[in-house]
Write a structure and sequence with these properties.
Blueprint (H helix, E strand, L loop, with lengths): L7 H8 L2 E2 L10 E4 L9 E6 L3 E8 L2 E5 L11 H8 L5 E10 L7 H5 L8 E12 L2 E2 L5 H11 L6 E3 L7 H10 L4 E6 L9 E9 L3 E12 L8 E8 L2 E8 L5 H11 L3 E2 L23 E6 L4 E5 L2 E2 L5 E2 L2 E5 L16 H4 L11 H4 L13 H4 L20 E5 L2 E5 L5 E3 L8 E2 H15 L6 E7 L9 E3 L11 E5 L7 E6 L2 H9 L2 E6 L12 E7 L6 H18 L4 E4 L5 E6 L6 H18 L4 E2 L11 E4 L26 E2 L18 H8 L13 H12 L6 H4 L3
Parallel strand pairs: 2-11, 7-9, 33-34
Antiparallel strand pairs: 1-8, 3-10, 4-5, 4-6, 6-7, 7-8, 10-11, 12-13, 12-16, 12-17, 13-14, 15-16, 17-20, 18-19, 21-22, 23-24, 25-26, 25-28, 25-29, 27-28, 30-32, 30-34, 31-32, 31-35
């Protein structure tokens, strides 16, 4: 049994199962609805999660997540699927897919709206194991199956085990109500697993009334601008669709648009209900309702509603839409009636609790109280680590970023073709990358005019520079005016937040080029840059040597400095100025530095501006400190094979063996998370140039300096 050869207790449990090939197309075991909680020995209690039930099949590296109506969840919930793919296990498991908040509480509406990892923390809660490594364990008692599950499942992360306890459901139920949980589940500790059966060995107690219903039509109120005003719903009864009410609340405009796409192919002239509902019937609270027209639908779609009670004629009072149930088949939807607890769970003073040895590792021993339920059973969302903004399947997706709606199209377009060592990178990948690095990158872009270099068809397509964005960006984008010899209004785009960054990425700006100064002080750069640009006769090892030499010079004069790979062929060295000096001062300070360094490394460096005069040597470029000159920002992608990244470095990393290619879209995010923001000093207080210029003359002798520098001394 390769599950865990060293775990004798686990292997002993598996041996009690039945040898069998991996089962297929199982339906989950179902619970019976009862009206009240109870405190009886021999039962286990757990949270009723508000999500999609799923049977998970793991076999030889293949993963299949199936809904109750046997539809695949693999693409829809790709984040769970990707983690399960890494879980080397042969098993069939039962669980619930949910989206949780910071307190660990699941919300079905959030799950409905989930399209990517940016929409909330997706969790798979596991609560049973049905088959494992060649053994059917459904005939084992629940407590033993729980032991197996706890032995094989991870402790935390996106896959979690739904914990149980075996004492006191009444207090647990009251705690669940206070936290607005959907309810609790009670399971007999010795219950076997019965696929597809609704059993009295598993019971559910809901904190609020909820019901799955079939959509049979929708209404449009006269004069309403909404796509629909209400849903007409019902349940199966004696082979026919019985009307149970009209649902008019719980829909966002976005949700209505998505639902209408599902409705269109189902529109029919035939009334699906046993009797035509009177949608214009006045009520005591609405004696003169707006006139509504009806569009009938074939009864194929299922949704879930919350309500206060059902009237004597079978209509729900105060129904509210909770979400679509893509995991349910309309033919299986009936009115769920609560059974009386006393009829299902008769008090039995002679009943015996499961043996301690069988439960000690599988369940908790005390019922959580209201004030500590979240600590004992609910693990909150981490909410800190950014993952994907866009899901891997939809070619067009709309997201709200910083309050602005951004639509991303043609997401499957290849921006970086595959190389020998890397897969192809799509537009989707690029936008997901910039979303993940935005918290680190935006501080270096904020309030700065941007020069866009656009690659709308990827790095092998035609590219072009764009400075003027007049009339070509949304109204919420801030602009920075400039003039040209041709005249007319011209405007740079100013990046103010991550919405601006993602807008540029969506326009094909693979690399991001901000000004060195901010719009508030456009003539005063926040940093001075030295760009080490190797020639055709210089190697990257020589770039490293030049960077090390510059660092020695800067250390000698007490100048703070930060370095990064260019992401292309060279390196960039930044010195913070704090916007205290103008571009002329920054440029001339850079000139003094490269002059010193070039004199120390004359064999392979040059400060000649004209390329042919450099004779293949490395160019120590200080002219990037002119107004409106730009370089690739920290963490920016570069239009090179393999999707390289301009990566900030620790100075002790600048040594032989370093390559530009080692930092790319595939590993940059992990590195940034590990190293943190090591470049933030660049936008700090800034160096004292007056002091440093004097130190230059002291350490390296009198240097020729521009008058702009002499004025500072």
């Amino acid at each position: 049994m390769p599950v865990n050869k060293k775990n004798k207790a686990l292997n002993a449990l598996l041996a009690r199962g039945t040898k069998q090939e991996s089962p297929q197309n199982l339906s989950p075991m179902l619970a019976t609805l009862i009206d009240k909680p109870f405190d009886e020995p021999g039962w286990l209690y757990e949270v009723k999660w508000d999500g999609y039930r799923a049977i998970i099949y793991l076999y030889n590296g293949n993963v299949e997540m199936r809904s109750r109506n046997n539809k695949s969840f693999n693409e829809k919930f790709y984040a769970v699927y990707n983690v399960l793919k890494q879980w080397k296990l042969n098993a069939v498991l039962d669980g619930e897919i949910v989206v949780i908040n910071d307190e660990g509480i699941s919300n079905f509406g959030d799950l409905q709206n989930w399209r990517s990892e940016a929409d909330g923390e997706l969790i798979l809660y596991l609560f049973d194991v049905l088959w494992i490594d060649g053994y059917n364990v459904m005939s084992l008692p629940l407590t033993e199956r729980k032991q197996i599950l706890n032995a094989i499942a991870p402790d935390a992360g996106i896959i979690r085990v739904s914990e149980s306890f075996d004492t006191g459901a009444t207090e647990f139920f009251e705690a669940a109500k206070k936290l607005n949980l959907e309810g609790i589940i009670a399971k007999k500790a010795n219950s076997i697993y019965l696929p597809g059966k609704r059993s009295n060995d598993w019971l559910k107690i809901k904190t609020n009334k909820r019901q799955e219903v079939i959509i049979g039509g929708f209404t449009n109120n006269e004069g309403s601008s909404k796509l629909f005003s209400a849903l007409l719903v019902g349940v199966n009864e004696n082979g026919k669709l019985k009307y149970t009410g009209k649902i008019g609340t719980g829909f966002s405009d976005k949700l209505q648009k998505e639902m209408m796409e599902q409705f269109k192919p189902l529109i029919t002239n035939k009334i699906p209900f046993t009797h035509e509902p009177d949608v214009n019937k006045p009520s005591r609270f609405r004696p003169d309702p707006p006139k509504a027209t009806v569009t009938w639908l074939k009864p194929k779609l299922v949704c879930e509603v919350a309500y206060t009670e059902i009237t004597s004629d079978g209509v729900m009072r105060h129904p509210s839409f909770e979400g679509m149930r893509v995991d349910k088949n309309a033919k299986n939807i009936h009115l769920e009636k609560e059974a009386h607890t006393k009829d299902i769970v008769p008090t039995n003073k002679n009943s015996v609790m499961p043996k301690k040895a069988a439960t000690k590792k599988a369940v908790k021993k005390t019922a959580p109280k209201a004030n500590d339920l979240t600590k004992k059973l609910l693990k909150g969302s981490t909410g800190k680590e950014r993952k994907t903004l866009l899901n891997p399947t939809e070619k067009s997706q709309t997201k709200t970023i910083n309050g602005h709606s951004l639509t991303f199209n043609n997401l499957n377009k290849i921006y970086f073709p595959a190389t020998k060592n890397t897969r192809a990178v799509t537009k989707r990948d690029v936008i997901n990358y910039y979303y993940q690095v935005a918290p680190y990158m935006v501080p270096f872009l904020k309030d700065r005019p941007q020069t866009m270099i656009r690659y709308p068809n990827g790095i092998n397509g035609q590219s072009f520079y764009q400075k003027d964005v007049t009339g070509k960006v949304p109204d919420w984008v801030e602009l920075f005016p400039y003039s040209t010899e041709e005249g007319g209004d011209r405007n740079y785009m100013i990046c103010t937040n991550e919405a601006g960054l993602l807008l540029m990425a969506s326009l094909g700006s693979l690399e991001i080029h901000p000004w060195s100064s901010r719009a508030q002080k456009p003539d005063n750069p926040d940093w001075c840059i030295l760009d080490l640009d190797p020639g055709d006769k210089t190697s990257f090892d020589q770039v490293i040597q030049a960077a090390q030499q510059i660092k020695q010079v800067l250390d000698a004069i007490g100048a703070e400095a930060y370095c990064k790979t260019s992401g292309a062929t060279g390196m960039h060295i930044y010195m913070p100025l704090g916007a205290k000096y103008n571009y002329e001062v920054s440029k001339e300070f850079g000139r003094v530095l490269v002059t010193i360094v070039q004199s120390q490394l004359p064999k392979f460096t040059s400060i000649e501006r004209i390329v042919q005069n450099r004779q293949g040597k490395m160019y120590l470029d200080f002219l990037q400190n002119r107004p409106q000159a730009t370089l690739a920002a920290p963490y920016s992608l570069r239009p090179k094979p393999g999707a390289t990244v301009s990566m900030p470095l620790h100075w002790d990393e600048v040594k032989k063996g370093l390559t530009v290619q080692q930092f790319n879209i595939f590993n940059a995010v992990d590195r940034i998370k590990e190293q943190g923001e090591i470049f933030k000093g660049v936008i700090g207080k800034g160096i004292n140039l007056k002091k440093i210029l004097k130190q230059i003359n002291t350490v390296f002798g009198e240097q020729e300096m521009h008058e702009s520098l002499l004025k500072l001394m």
